[in-house]
Amino acid sequence: MFLDYLALGLLIFVALVIFYGIIVIHDIPYEIAKEREHPHQDAIHYAGWVSLFTLHAIWPFLWIWATLWRKERGWGFQKIEQEQHDIHHRVDQLIDQVEALKQEVSQLKSQQPASEPVAARKEEEQ
Domain-by-domain residue ranges, the chain? Predict the structure, then answer.
């Protein structure tokens, strides 16, 4: 009789530990987001609760989402944005240079006396 109650108590204890463990595991992305001061930490927390109903199918994505953000560097895309800005600046410089060259060519063409067409000169040479 005593062993029956002991087994029942042990079964309830194990069930509670497993239930609590699942809740703690699903909350890991939220804890990461909170520690990193993630701007979407509430959304990650709610999605963690939703992941309980999807049998944690979206949990890996929540973990990735939570770990991508760092307060000191944000999403980590500043370097890419800076490189894009530099490339855009260089393209603008090249466009300006091409425009300047076009103007020089048009000035040089306007300074040359009107000459005969090339085909006419070739006929005279023969």
Answer: 1-76, 77-113
What is the reported pTM? 0.55
* CA gap 96, 74 in Å, rounded: 35
The helix-helix angle for 28-35 and 2-26 (nearest 10°) equals: 40
| Measured distance CA(122)–CA(126) in Å, rounded | 7
Q: Which residues of the chain have pLDDT under 70?
A: 77-80, 114-126
Q: Are 36 and 71 in contact (CB under 8 A)?
A: yes
What pLDDT, on the 0 to 100 scale, is given for residue 75? 75
Q: Which of 77, 99, 95, 75 is nearest to 87 (CA)?
A: 95
